[in-house]
What we know:
By secondary structure, the protein is of the alpha/beta class. The chain is built from 4 helices and 4 strands. It has one domain: Response regulator (Rossmann fold). Strands 2-1-3-4 form a 4-stranded parallel beta sheet, with helices on one face. It is globular.
Amino acid sequence: METIFFVCPHGAAKSVLAATYFQQLAHQHGLPFRAVCGGTEPEAAISPPVLAWLLAEGLPIPNPAPQLVTLRALATASRVITMNCDIEMLRPVGVAIEQWDDVPPVSQDLLAARHVIYAHVERLIHELTPLD
């Protein structure tokens, strides 16, 4: 099973939303991927509004607390997606990195951030879905 790693600065909002939606859609499409999320400077806890939003949607939370992104962890991923953070110093050799820097701050507009992230995740799922 391949791993997609979602990274944001604090690992508490954007990456959590992306990993959760990716895992849900990958499962629905029968894709052999798992989502992991983390931050370059992780917060102590997942953003309360994000946690409440995902629980209201009935979705499982990917991590109980934000995880620190390390070179070792990123090296296990087949793909890394960053949102408004620089991980160049952690770039593993041979791992594709994609940037989703158009995601607005969750603290300013959760709904707008959710829509942008979900649209990116849908495109990624479409890209990863094999043609029949």
